[in-house]
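Anyone else keep sequences and structure tokens together like this?

Example one:
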Amino acid sequence: MQGVRFDPWNPDFVAHPYDAYAELRRAAPVSYFEPTGQWLIPRYADVNALLRDRRLGRSYLHVATHEEFGRAAEPDFQEPFWRVVRAGMLDVEPPVHTRLRRLVSRAFTPRMVESLRPRVRAIAAGLVDTFVEKGGGDLIAEVAEPLPVTVIADMLGVPEADRPLLRPWSADICGMYELNPSPEAQHTAVRAADEFAGYLRELARERAARPGDDLISALARIDELTEDELVGTCVLLLNAGHEATVNVTGNGWWSLFRNPAELARLRADRSLLPTAVEELMRWDTPLQMFERWVLEDIEVHGTRIPRGTEVALLFGSANRDPEVFADPDRLDVGRADNPHISFGAGIHFCLGAPLARIELIESFGALLDRADRLELVREPEWKPGYVIRGLHSLDLAVS
């Protein structure tokens, strides 16, 4: 790693990791990062291939114990967190993953997702109208966060009075996914997972007795789904259903402000919105890293990566790889050939990608339509997290 500035705890690196990624791609297509005990994989072709390689997995517990993988078991205090997380489909492998994804995918068919567009458009319009009428504010807190949280809460059937609980729970749970989370972050994530799980168990039991027209009611009627799996699925749908969308919105508008010619181009031609959303996800990726366990020895560029170790697939680097993207460091809202990897690939490809695209197109479109002029009040600051990467706030004035 000598000479390569990969430093995920450095605020300057978090703010702009792309120069370090370019150096990694050139000099070290595979490298061992001692602080986290992971193999860094920065090139698009390798990231894409390993996401689809069944010799790797999000978990190893379906094939080995902690001890067999040379790892210590998680401390007892984390049990409530892992009970929730490992009951959802993100952190399990086939055949459990196959069964859970098949059940949940019924709610995410193309027709059902497209049927949500009018509701998403109405929510986005209402949020943006309020934002514009008051002359602006924090775009993330007032538009980016409420939109996807409202949509997923509507789908799940969470009562409106309880919805303010969801975003804090989600943010706290996601803190466990950062690299080497602090003891405080771990305890916070455990508490949030336990509280959220308790809330969902109670709600699911109510809906089982008195079903409504919502996803929790539908899941509660599926005999194949245990209560733990229902809870884990709902937690995953909330976390995955809005964290990335919030950060694409904030990061995306910050990207446009730093590239005013592309913002002007988008304002002049709304037909570019679909390609612009894809490009904003590529250019400043919300999920910078996705981790996989090595279940069987693999070799990448002549380097043996042994069973029992972990690879860190650098999505943010893959999305700037010049072998795949022409002029990759240039933001191009009309980029047509854009096979970005922000939603993953393989069996863990993001189930909610079509819904996220609708939310982003409607959100950006509503702001462009209703705010003739958006001005940055102050340069934003990045949150300290590297894996799930986003801004604290984005303060704008509207005229």
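And example two:
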Amino acid sequence: MQKQNRSQFEFVVLMAALMSIVALSIDAVLPALPMIGDYLSVSNPLDNPKLITSIFLGLGIGQLIFGPLSDSFGRKPIVYAGFILFFIASIICVTTKSFEMMILGRVLQGVGLACPRTMCIAMIRDTYEGDYMAKIISIVVMVFILVPVIAPTLGQYLMNHYNWQFIFTFNLIFGLIVMLWFWLRQPETLNDKYRIPYRLKIFKTGTVQFFKIRSAVIYTLLSGFITGSFMVYLSTSQQIFEKQYDLAEEFPLIFASLAISVGLATFLNSQLVIKYGMKRIVHTAMISFIIISLLFIILYNSGTNPSIGILIAFFALQFFTIGFLFGNLRALAMEPMGHIAGIGSALNGFISTVMAVPIADYIGTYVVNTVTPLFIGFLVCGLISLALFYLNSNKGAKVLSKI
């Protein structure tokens, strides 16, 4: 029993390490965005956040490509293939002097990183099910979200003591260490009875099966709206705190404190989900998400920013509710897809991410002199998400069947 517990502990930590390569590649770059923009001669500073949203676009595309392949070739070979692509893309980012090539490199980084991200969820689904699966995903997502606690500070340190290019080099070194650990210690999790012989039509058949599972589709759309609202913050946080509040030096600390709020919620979720169930927690969290957004809009509808303390308090409350949504929504979407975990995880990630990128880009264009558009975006995404959640309930299904 002790050996089994130790093995499970190592599995959870390893899955979290795989996910943290993704988080580190996104968040460590945040403090360097202005410097990278200057180096690449970017004329409009509002284009700098594209270096964040572009990697998410790659994550969405990569999941769609590699997820189905993992159902045929296994999870481990796909993780290796993704890291090789990540390595090549990182070299492009370090060596280019063109903003367009940097965007391409970030997209390719995202495509490569989609492999460990997707395979992490698929391997958890291969190994666990039900509310216990949600518990494991919550723990892994908690680590994924807590990486931003140190990532911007780490990125700023590397940028100040070396250069912004070394941020990408450090991510590669960290990724290589995790890959070696993964190669030495993680067995293949795909059960032979679920292994699908490779044919081009597996993309079609797996996609058809996915869209036949109504709850999986709805929870995937829910993830898209919630991820989109959070991605707006990720892509505009540097601009908000450094430009609107003139807190460039404090930015890593503020970013870290807010990441702790999300991480605390995901930890609490891992403790509560078995007792209360995923759906009940998601419902409560979405209502809270809407109320917090609405309260901010009512109090600050003039467009004047509140003090930094009040803003951080609102962000902390908002992200605390998001922490209860991330892992549970993915687990709810994955629950009925054990027979197509690879392509199911891929489609879940692809659809939710590709939805999130334009949502983030669109709302982000309005976050110039005030954060109010951000909370309006939160409110709209929250209301749509709640409507979808009710649509998936028994009463919602009955109403839909009568239409």
